[in-house]
UniProtKB/TrEMBL annotation:
<keyword id="KW-0732">Signal</keyword>
<dbReference type="InterPro" id="IPR012347">
    <property type="entry name" value="Ferritin-like"/>
</dbReference>
<feature type="domain" description="DUF4142">
    <location>
        <begin position="41"/>
        <end position="173"/>
    </location>
</feature>
<dbReference type="InterPro" id="IPR025419">
    <property type="entry name" value="DUF4142"/>
</dbReference>
<dbReference type="Pfam" id="PF13628">
    <property type="entry name" value="DUF4142"/>
</dbReference>
<feature type="signal peptide">
    <location>
        <begin position="1"/>
        <end position="24"/>
    </location>
</feature>
<protein>
    <submittedName>
        <fullName>Membrane protein</fullName>
    </submittedName>
</protein>
Amino acid sequence: MKRNLTVRVTLSVALLGAFSSGFAQTQAASTTQANELPPVDKAFVQAASESSSTEIDTAKLATKQSQDKDVKDFAHHMMVDHTKLTVELKMAAPHGVAVPKDNSDPAVLDALKPLKGKAFDTAYIKSVGIEGHQKAIAAFQKEAQEGQNADLKKAAAKALPTIQHHLEMAQALAAKKGVE
């Protein structure tokens, strides 16, 4: 009987130790996942995801509302590249940090939705192609220079040439279509 009680106490102590050790590890993992990003990195994740979502959603609009092959080609290129950039951003984000999806700028979408043809093309090239990429470049440059999360900082620096190229493409398209 005494031996049986000793075995039970020993087993209980062992289980309690294993449980508390596992609990401590789980608690540490949850705390790590719940940690907020530094403000500069958090602002970048929001700006980058909004930029790419807006690019993708407005590119889809362009395929329906533009009659211009050049505008549609530019839109298709933006859709493909910004989908890749979104995937790269999600891969660079620390575990537990949610990268918002489908968070397009509603003001940009609402301004473009009622437009068709040349009116759409002009607004799309100006607001998304040029102004949108200028804002994106500023956000990516800031993260590349000031970011505190190494993976996000590296992803921003890697993506920057692509976004700068998009701006150049938009400016060339604007010049070709007489958009000022």
